[in-house]
Design brief:
Elements (H helix, E strand, L loop, with lengths): L2 H4 L5 E4 L5 E5 L1 H9 L8 E3 L7 E2 L7 H6 L42 E2 L6 E2 L5 E3 L2 E3 L1 H8 L25 E2 L1 H18 L7 H29 L3 E2 L1 H43 L7 H7 L2 H27 L3 H14 L4 H47 L3 H14 L4 H41 L3 H14 L4 H18 L1 H12 L5 H14 L6 H30 L3 H14 L6 H16 L1
Parallel strand pairs: 9-10
Antiparallel strand pairs: 1-2, 1-3, 3-4, 5-6, 7-8
Helix pairs in contact: 4-6, 5-6, 5-7, 6-7, 9-10, 9-11, 10-11, 11-12, 11-13, 12-13, 13-14, 13-15, 14-15, 15-16, 16-17, 17-18, 18-19, 19-20
């Protein structure tokens, strides 16, 4: 195969003026569509190598076909040779033979399916939304698949003559039949005692779903034509599910009709259990035998006596309110008993006692409230005078002696405030002591008495660990331990303090001595960076002074003034700073003249 054919664009797609599409296709199929006038010059075409749609007349591979077209109208499919697609390009001719329908051997094709790209006849053609589909692609569209999705490589499979696809069974039909069988089996459970109320609605639901699925399957099979089979399965499922639906609804209706009289009868029985009114009490008694009435009376009397015993216990314990409540219960449940008559005589006395008890309780509560408030006010006065101990004792007595009063609630709040103030004052004293020890430790550390400083820091953390000072001491303790255990660290920090006031030359000497005596120090990298910085600053300062001196000798005072000013501002630690300052002032005087 030549290199041009090896790199020939694939997956050609066509967008027609009416919005329909022809895809995918190889170049051979595309050329056939042009010859058969299914593609017009202004239709849009794209492939894997193109970034955007272009008119068909601008496609290089189709120039020769559009130039040979005749102006008169031709049939939709011009005669072509079926074997032309298998010939080399230089041997192909434009006149080819019309292929047969892909699904009906011996019948000439009139259209091309936009889904699979196969040639189809008039019988197979199904037009939807302006697009032409075969029966199989229409079935795929009905079940949710997207007809016209790109097919596998090998576009020759798009031109198949005489091949009739094998029909497939509708899965939806099989599913509906399976559901109808389940509904039939579920209907058997309706015959079991006690299962009808649950089984009948469930069976009706399954049968409904089966009927719905069967109807949908029949609709899709009709649209697919001969491509999809399973009509008999769907019909069987539809019939059986409808029968089960009718039986289920019949059973539900019968069960409902039987339940209504039973509910009325039960309601009547419950109504008979209600307390009869004065007008029909004698009718109820005549309906009941005397033995039953006597037994009921004895039971009521026994129950009333038990409740009376509880009333006596409540009275002995001084619980008058509970005794009154139980007495009213006896009158409500057993009004015809002898015990109820006795309670009727005693109840007014009990109610009077209860009213007196409530009045006494209210008066006592008011008295306690006044006493508690007086003691609370006195506690606040003592606290404002600075007697915190007495105030705490009074507030505590209010809470203990009168816990249910409003003054006790306020006393609890004041106690919490006083306790917080006491804790804060205690913490403040502790922090002051810790701060004093921390100052002593810092003085020892500055004097390089690291052991004494570490001892003081440790005492602060152990004795005053909750103070704010203890929090700030922890990093200082670590730093002091570092200085005590690493001489190189002590020396480096001493150098850092010195180079703040030393000249660049002296700083360079100090850093070089440090690197010589402590080559393995953890500060080696920082020392080298400082050394490099000081050396650079020294060179720049020397250059600035030399330039300034030269300009000063040449009486170019404005230039000398600028160089000296930069030296004094940016490099004040230079050894030339005193001399530069003197000449800087002289240059300024010269410029004023």
């Amino acid at each position: 195969m030549c290199s041009d054919e090896a790199h020939e664009p694939r997956n050609w797609k066509v967008k027609k003026r009416d919005g329909s599409r022809l895809e995918p296709a190889t170049l051979e199929v595309l050329r056939h569509w042009v010859v058969s006038r299914q593609i017009e010059p202004d239709d849009l075409i794209i492939n894997d190598d193109l970034a955007d749609w272009i008119p068909a007349s601008e496609v290089l591979q189709l120039f020769d076909l559009f130039e040979k077209r005749e102006p008169e109208t031709r049939p939709r499919l011009a005669p072509i040779d079926v074997t032309a697609a298998q010939k080399p390009k230089h041997e192909r001719e434009d006149d080819v033979e019309v292929p047969d329908c892909a699904f009906h051997a011996g019948r000439k094709a009139t259209e091309i399916c936009v889904g699979c790209g196969k040639f189809i006849c008039e019988e197979c053609r199904q037009r939807v939304e302006g697009k032409v589909y075969c029966g199989r692609c229409m079935a795929e569209k009905e079940v949710g698949a997207e007809p016209g999705a790109p097919v596998r490589q090998g576009a020759a499979a798009q031109i198949i003559s005489g091949a009739i696809p094998s029909a497939s069974t509708s899965r939806l039909a099989v599913f509906s039949l399976a559901l109808s069988i389940c509904a039939l089996l579920a209907s058997v459970t309706m015959l079991l005692p006690g299962r009808t109320l649950i089984a009948a609605p469930a069976t009706a639901f399954v049968a409904f779903i089966a009927a719905l699925s069967a109807g949908l399957a029949l609709s899709r099979i009709r649209l697919a034509g001969n491509v999809v089979r399973g009509r008999s399965l769907a019909v069987a499922a539809l019939v059986s599910s409808c029968v089960v639906l009718v039986v289920s609804f019949t059973v539900i209706s019968l069960f409902t009709m039987r339940a209504r009289p039973a509910s009325r009868e039960g309601a009547g029985q419950l109504a008979g259990l209600e307390e009869p009114g004065p007008g029909d009490r004698h009718i109820t008694r005549r309906q009941q035998p005397p033995e039953f009435l006597e037994q009921t009376r004895e039971e009521h009397e026994a129950n009333a006596r038990q409740l009376l015993e509880q009333v006596e216990e409540y009275l002995s314990d001084g619980q008058i309110e509970q005794a009154v409540s139980t007495s009213k219960t006896i009158l409500g449940l057993y009004p015809e008993t002898e015990t109820a008559k006795l309670i009727t005589e005693r109840l007014p006395v009990l109610e009077d006692a209860l009213d007196r008890e409530r009045a006494e309780a209210a008066a006592l509560k008011q008295q306690n409230e006044q006493r508690a408030q007086t003691r609370f006010d006195h506690a606040l006065k003592m606290y404002s005078e600075g007697d915190r101990v007495t105030a705490m004792d009074l507030l505590s007595s209010v809470v203990d002696s009168y816990p249910d009063t409003n003054a006790a609630r306020l006393a609890r709040v004041e106690i919490a405030k006083i306790q917080t103030a006491i804790a804060d004052q205690r913490m403040k004293k502790l922090d002051e002591e810790a701060s004093r020890l921390a100052q002593q430790a810092e003085a020892h550390a500055e004097a390089e008495e690291y052991a004494e400083a570490i001892a003081l820091y440790t005492e602060i953390l152990s004795s005053y660990g909750q103070t704010p000072t203890a929090t700030s001491v922890r990093p200082k303790l670590k730093d002091t331990e570092l200085l005590a255990n690493h001489p190189s660290e002590r020396e480096f920090r001493k150098i850092l303090r010195q180079i703040e006031t030393e000249t660049y030359e002296n700083s360079i000497v100090l850093l070089q001595d440090f690197l010589t005596h402590f080559p393995d120090s953890d500060r080696d990298r920082e020392a080298r960076e400082l050394l490099t910085e000081n050396e650079s600053n020294k060179r720049i300062a020397d250059s600035l002074y030399n330039f300034g001196r030269t300009y000063f000798d040449e009486q170019k005072y404005n230039l000398a003034f600028g160089r000296y000013g930069k030296l004094l501002n940016d490099y004040p630690r230079s050894r030339w700073t005193p001399q530069a300052k003197k000449e800087y002032e002289e240059s300024f005087e010269k410029l004023k003249e």
